[in-house]
Structures are given as structure tokens and as C-alpha cells.
Write a structure and sequence with these properties.
Length: 347
């Protein structure tokens, strides 16, 4: 088949192609390894030298002609196929939509808002610090120098390389340090610091990430009686007016004296049950009078100012208040879990 015959055949065949499959078959027929245009190209080596240039140019023109017609038809077929698909898949927007499942406000959001609303009504300011903190703010300025045995109780996430002196904060007390240092006048403070903290711990009642809220009050003539009254009011407002509160001596490096705070078991009312291990009491938070060393390290005169601090896990309060048995379900994003709390708060 000579050049002119291939050209006429090419035009005729391309015009007759009715779909992409036939078009692609023609591409193989003309440009494949044994295609007609390929065979013409292979004939160049047998043509006299003075005719090779002209012959090669005509073969290239023929290949270009094929590609141009091929692309034009291919685009037309693809556009037609797309239009057909769009017509078949058209959506009638006037039809009623399917009901979308909705959850409700997350229990941690509910607890956080309740805590903040209560303390703001008592004259506190809400302060949130960064979640990545220095070792100095997280431990040293809270009276926990390097090598202090109390650090072992907080298995923390340290960062590496040039950030080796930084970590994911293990307590929101770091925010209290920042508040004291930012208070240039070194005057009275009344603040609560809610936020996420991180520890290497995970089971049904513990999570590597959880929510804490800590409170700090600094002023002249602040006493343990002020701390006790504040925490009794807090526990009764959050867990119910019938809640009893007791204080037990304890140890925290950043407070002296320190106490653990227990409340009557919300399930049995103090009678004793498996939840409270038959004691009638459940531990909910730690507290104490701010250690003079902590005050001095943040620039306060410990002979003039005293303070109290307290801290608790908001996840634990959410579990108590809403009867959540496993802390991991709080962060599971299961809409069946989330949607039930409107009803619980209404009860």
C-alpha cells in the first residue's frame, strides 16, 4: 500500500469510527508496531538517499494528520459519554432529603462549660496555656527540680533533639506558672486553667490524653478555710447539693500543706458499693496551699502573699456525672454515644 492509499484509508476509517473502542483499534492499526504508518516509516531505509527527506516529511505529515483527527474524535466521544452519564445521574433536588443523624454537645464540652461558668460566677478568670511546655515551667518552677522522685509519678512525653527540654505538658499547673509570671505587678490572682494534658498511661479509667482544670488564688490572708469553702461549693454545684466532701492529708511538691479531696459516692450515696470499693467515698481532686518556693520562683513575696491551688481531671467528673464506664468511649466519636447527653442533662 503506497502513501496515497494509506492517506485515503486513514481518513475513511476515522470518519466511520462510532466510539472510543473503534477509535483506539484504528490507532493500533495505523500507529502500532505493525501499523500502516509504521510500515511506511520503516520503508525509508530502502528509498534512495535523495528521496528520503521528502518521503520522511510526508510520513510525518500523515502521522500528524492521524493524531489530529484522532484527538478531535476522541474528545467528542468523551464529551458525549460524560453528558450521557450526567443525564442518567441527575439528582432531583426537590425530593425530600434523607434525615441526617445528629449528635449533641460532647460531654467534655458540657463539663468544661459547667466548670467555667461556675468559677467565672465566683470571680475567676479563665486562662489557657500552651500544650507544649518547657521542663522548667512544667516541673522546676512547681518545686520539682531535676531528679525529684515525685517526677516518677508523671510518665511524660518529652521532645527530642533541639527541643529536648520541652514536653507535652503533664498538668495544667504550667498555666498557673505563666499567669504568675505575666502578672508584672505581682498582685492578687484568681484564675482557672482548663485544657488538655498528656501522660503515658491508658486503660479503662486513664488515657494518654485527658482534660484537667486547675485553680489558683493568690492574695493576702488566704487560708485553708478559703480553699475548703471553695471546693465544697464546687463539688455540690457540679455533683449535687447532697454531696458531702472530706479532706485527707497528702503530699504535692507545689503545695504545703496538701490534701486529697473525696466526695460521697454518687451511685450509692455513701452507703458503699463496687464503684467506691465499699468505702462510700470517691477521690476527685488534689489541692493545697501554694508552696512558698513556688511563689518566690515566680516573683511573689511569700511573706506577704499566700495562695491555694486545686486540680482535677474533667474526664473523671464527666464519667461520674454521666455514668460513663470507660474513658476511651469519650474520645471514640461514636454518634450513638454523643446523642444521649441532652436527655441526661435534662433528667
Amino acid at each position: 500500500m503506497n502513501m496515497e492509499e494509506v492517506k485515503n484509508s486513514l481518513i475513511n476509517d476515522l470518519e466511520k469510527a462510532n466510539d472510543l473502542k473503534e477509535l483506539n483499534d484504528l490507532k493500533v492499526e495505523y500507529l502500532g508496531k505493525k501499523g500502516k504508518i509504521t510500515e511506511l516509516n520503516q520503508m525509508i531505509k530502502d528509498i534512495p538517499n535523495e528521496e528520503k527527506k521528502e518521503f520522511g516529511q510526508k510520513v510525518n505529515e500523515l502521522r500528524t494528520m492521524f493524531n489530529d483527527i484522532y484527538e478531535e474524535k476522541k474528545n467528542a466521544f468523551e464529551a458525549a459519554a460524560l453528558n450521557e452519564k450526567l443525564a442518567k445521574e441527575a439528582i432531583d433536588i426537590t425530593l425530600p432529603s434523607k434525615k441526617v443523624k445528629r449528635g449533641s454537645k460532647h460531654p467534655m464540652t458540657r463539663i468544661t462549660e459547667q466548670f467555667e461558668d461556675l468559677f467565672v460566677s465566683m470571680g475567676y478568670t479563665v486562662y489557657e496555656g500552651p500544650e507544649i511546655e518547657s521542663d522548667e515551667n512544667c516541673f522546676q518552677k512547681l518545686n520539682l527540680p531535676k531528679g525529684h522522685p515525685a517526677r516518677d509519678a508523671q510518665d511524660t512525653f518529652y521532645l527530642k533533639d533541639e527541643y529536648e527540654n520541652f514536653l507535652l505538658r503533664s498538668q495544667t499547673s504550667t498555666a498557673q506558672v505563666r499567669v504568675m509570671e505575666e502578672n508584672v505587678e505581682k498582685g492578687p490572682i484568681r484564675v482557672v486553667c482548663p485544657g488538655k494534658v498528656y501522660r503515658r498511661d491508658e486503660d479503662a479509667t486513664h488515657s494518654h490524653q485527658f482534660m484537667q482544670i486547675e485553680g489558683l488564688v493568690i492574695d493576702e490572708n488566704v487560708s485553708m478555710a478559703d480553699l475548703k469553702g471553695t471546693l465544697e461549693l464546687f463539688c455540690k454545684k457540679i455533683l449535687g447539693e447532697k454531696t458531702n466532701v472530706r479532706f485527707r492529708p497528702s503530699f504535692f511538691p507545689f503545695t504545703e500543706p496538701s490534701v486529697e479531696v473525696d466526695v460521697t459516692c454518687f451511685k450509692c450515696g455513701g452507703k458503699g458499693c463496687p464503684l467506691c470499693k465499699q468505702t462510700g467515698w470517691i477521690e476527685v481532686l488534689g489541692a493545697g496551699m501554694v508552696h512558698p518556693n513556688v511563689l518566690e520562683m515566680s516573683g511573689y513575696d511569700s511573706t506577704k502573699y499566700q495562695g491555694f491551688a486545686f486540680g482535677t481531671g474533667m474526664d473523671r467528673f464527666a464519667m461520674f456525672k454521666y455514668g460513663i464506664p470507660d474513658i476511651r468511649t469519650i474520645y471514640g466519636n461514636d454518634i450513638r454515644f454523643i446523642e444521649q447527653f441532652d436527655k441526661k442533662d435534662g433528667e
